[in-house]
Amino acid sequence: MTRQAPPRVLTVAGSDSGGGAGIQADLKTMLALGVHGMSVVTAVTAQNSLGVQGAWELPVEAVRAQYRSVVDDIGVQAVKTGMLASAELVEAVADLLSGTDAPVVVDPVGVSKHGDSLLAASALESVRTRLLPTATVATPNLDEVLQLTGVRVESETGLRRAADALLALGPRWVLIKGGHLAGDAVDLLTDGTATHWLRAPRHDNRHTHGTGCTLASAVAAELAKGRDVPEAVSAAKVYVTGAIAAGFALGGGIGPVDHAWKRHRPDRR
Fold this sequence. Notes:
alpha/beta
């Protein structure tokens, strides 16, 4: 008998040659969570544990061709976006997403873990006006909140103000990631009416490369399985917390989270 295909999830993002973030992290996450991952490469980076040494975006026509090739033949149950690099790519991807009947998770990648810029300043307005309105869930960290809205969050009390500012740009739900704050790792998920606070203990582990990509991909994977947004985000939070706890040293800088942590620790669900 032929096995029925698992849910299909498409990542539209840049490549990380070091394997810790970008499409590599996305596909590892999708495999770990039992969905079939597919990719549209938007940019290629020379990247390792120390930072990004170079980045080259792909032509818009190459991105469009990859997307149509996958969606028109295989189909998707969810799409996740990551590094889009330029205004031209943001607008092209937004057009493609608007014509796709599947939930969309937008990770508005602006800078890398090491502070390297991954989005042209000229693309910010396109992210605000074209990309975010396509999002079922947007998953910015606090640096990206500041970049997109001008709202600076310095404590947990500021997360709600950040969420309101992001919701005004059009996504159905926003997940404001508070991982850069002191104390427990607390995130706020809201659609402007329902509010969910997600808390997890902060692990004393500096090897957290790929955290944002991993979380957004996990949300997309859970949405593809048919979970609603709060259920999908809650399950993704559990997964990424375990991956952070199991992060390992690689190279001379910040190592990656461990996408296969459940395989190594079958007692942890």
